[in-house]
Amino acid sequence: MKEKLKNVFFRIWYWYVSTVDKNAEVIFMNYGYSKDNHKIKLDESDEKNRYSAQLYNLVASGANIKGKDILEIGCGRGGGLSYINRYLSPSSITGIDLNKKAIQFCKKHYSNEKTKFLQANAQNLNFQDNTFDVVINIESSHRYSKMDKFLYEVYRVLRPGGFFLFADFRHEVELEKLNTQLKNSSFMLLNDEKITTNVLEALKLSTSERENLIHKIVPKFLHGLGKKFAATEGTPTYNKFLTGEFEYLFYVLMK
Question: Is there a contact between 78 and 70 (Cβ–Cβ < 8 Å)?
Answer without folding.
Answer: no
